[in-house]
Amino acid sequence: MRVTVSRKAHFNSAHRLYRKDWSMEQNNTIFGKCNNPNYHGHNYELIASVTGEIDQETGFVIDVKILKDIIKKEIEDAFDHKNLNLDVPEFKDLNPTAENIAVVIHQKIKAKLASNLDLEVTLYETPRNFVTYSG
Ligand code: NI
Q1: How far apart are CA 112 and CA 90, in angstroms?
Q2: pLDDT tens for residues 41-84?
């Protein structure tokens, strides 16, 4: 039986959406207020969902404590109260849109999971705007 186990997490981060190779005018046209050179912040909400077979000995798909610790180390410690553009190496040359943040989160968590487990990441940038990535 394949079952999905989910864990919610939270981080506050600042970001700016822009391309270095575009003019300020072009960045403003595409990214609007998100191109503010002084950055702006979001309260991100993350849902990481791990799907796999139930282990017949433990009854777990994944020990949620292990998932919690992976999210803490890989995501919260790396992103919380950080400036994504300046402090997080993955976004040095990658625009930190919700889409790209979800992909980076997926890559970082997936790398720590057993290979037989599937992962879906849902990232809320605001209570109404969210993205989903399953790899
Ligand atoms: Ni933003």
Answers
A1: 17
A2: 999 999 999 999 999 999 999 999 999 999 999 999 999 999 99
Ligand 1 geometric centre to CA of 124 (Å): 11
121 within 8 A of 47, measured Cβ to Cβ: yes
Identify whether the C-beta of residue 41 lies closer than 8 Å to the C-beta of residue 13. yes
Does this model's pTM top 0.90? My answer is: yes
- Chain-centre distance for alpha carbon 52: 21
Residue ranges covered by each domain of the chain: 2-133
CATH of domain 2-133: 3.30.479.10
**Among all residues, which ones are annotated catalytic?**
34, 81, 125
55: its two tokens: 């282990």
135 C-alpha to center of ligand 1: Å?
23
